[in-house]
């Protein structure tokens, strides 16, 4: 179980060249709720937990505690830094001896060039962790891995302590199940920089008409306050109950919780195949099936939305062309319907070039024109100039990768940052030549809904 391997050149932290010890233990468990496991870590691992569930609901990952973290505040090299440090760490593990691999989970900010400020000051531009206790639920099977990474030799005592901690967590989670929570009480809801946002849409639309760019995504935020401190387990339970068709994610850093329910896959890598999704172009859901179908049909035929969508298809196709031996992309979008909204959707897939990695794909794809714009450089400059806020982790890549390089990243939209008695929600939309400020504003209201509902807030027409 406890294999000690010495690294020479590939010490993960690069701080010195001493030995790194990596202990793994895997057990199979039964009857465990992922939410209850997350909650069980509330005292011992507060501020060091994460949660992930894919759209298909056949893969759930929960992390409690940090066996190892990788952070970077660099710009372009932040992808390579995470990749190198993870590979160096994995190289000293004996993960192949266990039925479950160690998994690295984390996220990247949207734009390292925009100085992090305000509510985002706690997060690095790359923030990843290998959990001390990692729950994986895959196709009904459940495993808990425990990990210790240490510069010191790992003793029998260390292992006993780790196993006892794990057994205590499992006991708590199994005995308590997941709690039910009272609805949260919002005391104030504010739309910061609303006027600036509306003006920026008009200005950006004008610039696009002048030919400065083709498409630019502009976002804004909502700020909520609560009568009492809101816990991570509480909001996660709300999101879990209310957003069944999305990726669910939550990432803690100290007293901050970034969480959301996104429909959008950035990239999935499995057995050397890559899968991405173009999701851009939106319309609300209808009150009846007939109205819903009518709205869906009008979205499929709407020139402005088709244009928003097409830039994303072109860019993602180009990325697959560069990184894959072959790739397929349907000729026309279909509808993707989730609880509050319908989108235009085109799936893209391909066989990866030899040696291409998931983080290379993430680096190459992010930001797609669904969150940045087209052309990318010009759009990013305009977002920096016109957007009256800092996106932080909103709209960035969030996800996981295992020891062998398989993994999945979603685009962290329909998301919010919770800071005890405060929360910030984020939403944006693709601006093209015929965008109108008020209808873009309305589109953000629809996109705020999932997080607003999870946080107990309400919009007039909800
Ligand atoms: C920017 C967001 O959505 C993007 C993803 C899908 C549809 C979009 C749209 O129709 O504008 C946006 O590009 C958001 O949810 O904050
Ligand atoms: Mg739109």
TrEMBL record:
<comment type="similarity">
    <text>Belongs to the isochorismate synthase family.</text>
</comment>
<dbReference type="GO" id="GO:0009697">
    <property type="term" value="P:salicylic acid biosynthetic process"/>
</dbReference>
<keyword id="KW-0413">Isomerase</keyword>
<dbReference type="Pfam" id="PF00425">
    <property type="entry name" value="Chorismate_bind"/>
</dbReference>
<feature type="domain" description="Chorismate-utilising enzyme C-terminal">
    <location>
        <begin position="194"/>
        <end position="447"/>
    </location>
</feature>
<dbReference type="InterPro" id="IPR015890">
    <property type="entry name" value="Chorismate_C"/>
</dbReference>
<dbReference type="InterPro" id="IPR004561">
    <property type="entry name" value="IsoChor_synthase"/>
</dbReference>
<dbReference type="GO" id="GO:0008909">
    <property type="term" value="F:isochorismate synthase activity"/>
</dbReference>
<dbReference type="InterPro" id="IPR005801">
    <property type="entry name" value="ADC_synthase"/>
</dbReference>
<protein>
    <recommendedName>
        <fullName>isochorismate synthase</fullName>
        <ecNumber>5.4.4.2</ecNumber>
    </recommendedName>
</protein>
<dbReference type="InterPro" id="IPR019999">
    <property type="entry name" value="Anth_synth_I-like"/>
</dbReference>
């Amino acid at each position: 179980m406890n294999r000690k391997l010495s690294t020479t050149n590939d010490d993960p932290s690069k701080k010195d060249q001493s030995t790194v010890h990596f202990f793994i233990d895997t057990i199979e468990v039964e009857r465990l709720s992922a939410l209850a496991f997350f909650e069980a870590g509330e005292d011992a691992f507060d501020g060091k937990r994460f949660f992930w569930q894919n759209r298909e609901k056949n893969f759930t990952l929960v992390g409690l505690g940090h066996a190892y973290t990788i952070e970077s505040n660099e710009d372009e090299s932040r992808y390579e830094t995470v990749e190198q440090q993870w590979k160096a760490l994995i190289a000293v593990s004996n993960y192949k001896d266990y039925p479950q691999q160690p998994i690295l989970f984390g996220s990247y900010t949207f734009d390292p060039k925009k100085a992090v400020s305000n509510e985002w000051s706690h997060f690095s531009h790359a923030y990843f962790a290998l959990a001390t206790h990692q729950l994986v639920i895959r196709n009904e099977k459940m495993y808990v891995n425990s990990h210790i990474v240490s510069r010191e030799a790992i003793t029998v005592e260390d292992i006993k302590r780790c196993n006892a901690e794990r057994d205590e967590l499992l006991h708590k989670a199994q005995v308590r199940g997941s709690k039910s929570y009272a609805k949260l009480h919002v005391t104030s809801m504010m739309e910061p920089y609303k006027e600036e946002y509306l003006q920026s849409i008009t200005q950006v639309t004008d610039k696009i008409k002048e030919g400065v760019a083709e498409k630019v995504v502009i976002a804004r935020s909502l700020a909520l306050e609560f009568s009492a401190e809101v816990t991570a387990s509480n909001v996660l339970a709300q999101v879990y109950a209310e957003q069944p068709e999305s990726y669910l994610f939550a990432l803690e850093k100290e007293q901050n919780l970034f969480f959301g329910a996104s429909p959008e896959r950035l990239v999935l890598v499995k057995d050397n195949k890559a899968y991405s999704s173009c999701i851009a172009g939106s319309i609300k859901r209808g009150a009846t099936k007939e109205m819903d179908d009518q709205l869906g049909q009008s979205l499929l035929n709407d020139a402005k939305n088709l244009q928003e969508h097409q830039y994303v298809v072109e860019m993602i196709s180009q990325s697959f062309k560069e990184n894959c031996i072959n790739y397929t992309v349907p000729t026309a979008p279909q509808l993707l319907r989730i609880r509050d909204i319908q989108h235009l959707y085109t799936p893209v897939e391909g066989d990866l070039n030899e040696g291409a990695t998931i983080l290379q794909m993430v680096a190459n794809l992010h930001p797609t024109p669904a969150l940045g714009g087209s052309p990318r450089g010009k759009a990013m400059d305009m977002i920096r100039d016109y957007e009256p806020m800092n996106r932080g982790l909103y709209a960035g890549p969030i996800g996981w990768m295992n020891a062998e390089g398989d993994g999945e990243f979603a685009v962290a939209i329909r998301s919010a940052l919770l800071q005890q008695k405060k929360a910030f929600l984020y939403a944006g939309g693709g601006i093209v030549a015929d965008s109108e400020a008020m209808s873009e504003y309305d589109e953000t209201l629809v996109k705020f809904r999932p997080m607003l509902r999870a946080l107990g807030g309400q919009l007039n027409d909800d």
